Amino acid sequence: MTGAKTRARQIANLRQNGIRHTINAAGWPVVARAVVEGTAAAAREPERKPWRSAALDKP
Q: Where is the sequence biased in composition, kind Basic and acidic residues (predicted)?
């Protein structure tokens, strides 16, 4: 995908281009298919609600 042959260069290239990826147990970058294909699921960021203690909601 990046043309780089080493792990460090592949990771650097992915970061430079803003491509979301994870690092597997062997240390190699892994890019989800949805990111490459540009599906809507990859474009959406998960919705995060601010943390709130359940103790505050008790009567």
A: 44-59
